[in-house]
Amino acid sequence: MSYQPNWNLDVIFPGGSHSPELQAWLTKLEQDLNDFAMKTGAPLPAVEEARLEAVKERLHTYQELTKRLREAGAYVSCLVAQNVKDEAAVIRQSTVRRLSSMLQARAIELEETLVELPESSFERLLTWAEEKGFAGPLREWREKAREKMDPSLEKLASALSVDGYHGWGEMYNSIVGRLSVTVHVDGQKKTLSVGQASNLLAHPSRAVRQEAFLALENAWNEVADLNARVLGHLSGFRLALYEKRGWTDVLFEPLRINRMQRETLDAMWDAVAAGKERLVQYLNHKAKLLGLEKLSIYDVDAPLSEQTETIPYDEGARLIIEQFRAFDPELSMFAQRAFEERWIEAEDRSGKRPGGFCTSFPIKGQSRIFMTYQGTMDNVSTLAHELGHAYHQHVMNDLPHLSQQYAMNVAETASTFAEQIVNGALIDRADAKARAVLIDQKLSRAVAFFMNIHARFLFETRFYEERKKGMLSVQELRELMTQAQKEAYLDALDTYHADFWQSKLHFYITSPPFYNFPYTFGFLFSTGLYARAKAEGPSFAKRYVALLRDTGRMDTETLAKHHLGVDLKTRAFWDEAVREATAEVDEWLRLTPGDIEKTQAL
User: Fold this and answer.
1) 206-226: per-residue pLDDT in tens?
2) Element (H, E) at 184
3) Which of 110, 131, 164 is the last residue of a domain?
4) 405-432 confidence digits (pLDDT tens)
5) Is residue 473 part of a domain?
6) Which of 37, 399, 416, 543 has a Cα-to-Cα distance from 347 of 20 to 30 A?
7) Do residues 351 and 11 lie in contact, with contact meaning Cβ atoms separated by under 8 Å?
8) CATH number of the domain to which 41 belongs
9) What pLDDT band is residue 600 in, cutting at 50, 70 and 90?
């Protein structure tokens, strides 16, 4: 079967950004939000039984409105991603932002209601919620409400965020969408989006990688002053809100969102730090293979051979389906459905947003995956990664919407686990030549999670501390980023990416802050899961699904204790996962001779 690399959005709302059905959906949603505002703004009945019934009805309505808003928001995000110059889609996105603010105001009123309920009444409500399947999220909701400002101030902050916070995030997308770079590839001069050009940093030719890197640096330099302002205002808004809430630690919110404790985060980073020297060995040897004293930042993902095979989209799809089947036929059938029903936008063309994502449509019970596929093994891994996200949502579709709200760290677990399935199976069955290439790619991913992500975490942590003193200049941002990268990579490179603070979209996302450490968590947590899957065999698939279904109902530490019997606040699990992630360094050193010509001749 031939699979098309373009998604089908018309089954959600036909007509794109000018869809009459979308407009009608948004209009009706706004009307229902206004009606809901009248209900949540009205006093609750004095009699306890009637009061609890009113709260139950409000919770039900809130979940239904949340699903409807998510349906429209996911669709609009797809429209903007596939064509950043679609002005009508950007306008629709602003409408969704405004409706989100309206719903957030209702959520704040519900929070206030939950906080004001007497303990005995709340316990009765929890008993009902337990039967419905969302007692854990409800209890968490109440606890979080107690940590915020007065509800009237929270509603004001939410309303102001539409233009004062989210508006800055949209500004960044507009700035990036207008950028293009010119690069010579395969003897041709090509004008590319920054997303397309970024893919060239893994090109087999060092000349192409270097030209792409320099062209991107020039492009980012042209808009550095604008992006410095955008980042400064985004962080300023967030810090002002933290101050009013009494949150002195910038990690308080991201840890709360990820349902994890600081001890877990510290244990993870300590284990990563202890395992980095193994990856420095890998980086130093890779430099030797490429004929370099040290790698530059644009060499880290370089393939070992300039004759790297291109994997057509159809072939990549079949490879993923096949490897998923070896782990779990259900996962394989799900992936095949995603390809056949065209849930994936993978075409390599200009005008698309950089990066990749997976978004879900809770009413249709479908997902959509966005990426730019250029036929590399890394692209195949990305595709498997995003399908892992989609499968995670798929196994939770029958749960109450409140119990589907899983955190970023465990979301990255499902996606990275899917990558592990594909890459691990390929390594196990490969001959020496292919095995060397595949292990190189696996270790390159470990570098990304242990070093690249750590650099992002170090930069953002230090940036926020400096931002408390005032806006930062472009030069100060570049210095902070360069220092963070040098520290995270143990100074193993000779050239760093000083403008990475501009090129990484995650610094500008206005939903979860610190969009970095959850990736490393997910990588290591999934590595531990994958080791257990290999040890237990096919029976692990059911345990894996059970764990995924609980990700919206348990905090991180409880999830790991309940399903794996491990304590994430101590080093033991993380040390084991780090060892597993770097276990093949010695084998790779043996498989790869001392120069690139010998490597290519394997």
Assistant:
1) 999 999 999 999 999 999 999
2) strand 181-185
3) 164
4) 998 899 888 999 999 999 888 888 788 8
5) yes
6) 416
7) no
8) 1.20.140.70
9) very low
**What is the total count of domains within the chain?**
2
Q: In the 3-class helix/strand/coil scheme, how is 237-306 assigned residue by residue?
A: HHHHHHHHHCCCCCCHHHHHHCCCCHHHHHHHHHHHHHHHHHHHHHHHHHHHHCCCCCEEHHHCCCCCCC
Distance CA 423, CA 442 (A): 8
* Adjacent-strand bridge partners of 185: 188
Which residue segment(s) compose the domain that 106 sits in?
16-164
Residue with tokens 């949209």: 170
Helix axes 432-447, 262-289, angle to 10 degrees: 130
pLDDT at 602: 40
Q: Read off the pLDDT band of 353 (50, 70, 90).
A: confident
**Contacts for 19 with CB less than 8 Å, ≥ 6 apart:** 13
Looking at the fold, whether 419 and 551 belong to one and the same domain comes out as yes
The residue among 303 and 36 whose pLDDT is bigger is 36
Report, as an integer, the average pLDDT of 54-66.
Answer: 96
Report the phi/psi class of residue 356: left, alpha or beta, with left for phi > 0 and alpha for psi in -120 to 50.
beta
598: confidence class by pLDDT, cuts 50, 70, 90: very low
Classify residue 192 as left (phi > 0), alpha (psi -120 to 50) or beta.
beta
**Tell me: the pLDDT tens digits for 336-346?**
999 999 999 99
Please state, in angstroms and rounded to a whole number, the distance separating the CA atoms of residues 513 and 464.
11
Q: Determine the pLDDT at residue 370.
A: 97
Mean pLDDT on 482-511: 95
Question: What distance in Å separates the CA atoms of residue 552 and residue 511, rounded to the nearest whole number?
Answer: 17
11 C-beta neighbours (distance < 10 Å), count: 13
Q: Within a domain: residue 436?
A: yes
Q: What's the rounded Cα separation, in Å, for the pair 320 and 33? A: 42
Q: Which residues contact 355 (CB under 8 A, 6 or more apart)?
A: 195, 371, 505
Question: Which residue did the predictor score with more confidence, 41 or 315?
Answer: 315
Share of the chain above pLDDT 90, in %: 76
The larger pLDDT score, comparing residue 39 to residue 367, is at 367
**In whole angstroms, what separates CA 143 from the centre of its chain?**
26
- Residue 295's beta-bridge partner residues? 493
Is residue 30 situated within a structural domain? yes
DSSP state, residue 592: S
What is the rounded distance in angstroms from the CA atom of residue 536 to the CA atom of residue 579? 19
- Pick from 409, 334, 423, 359: nearest CA to 79: 359
Q: Which two tokens stand for residue 510?
A: 């206005």
Whether residue 383 contacts residue 371, with contact meaning beta carbons closer than 8 Å, is answered with yes
pLDDT at 438: 87
Closest CA to 566 of 524, 519, 517, 516: 524
Residue pointed to by tokens 């109440």: 142
Q: Which residues does 424 contact at the CB level (< 8 Å), separation at least 6?
A: 530, 534
More confident residue, 564 or 598: 564
Q: Are strands 357-361 and 366-370 parallel, antiparallel or unpaired?
A: antiparallel
Tokens coding 491:
């100074």
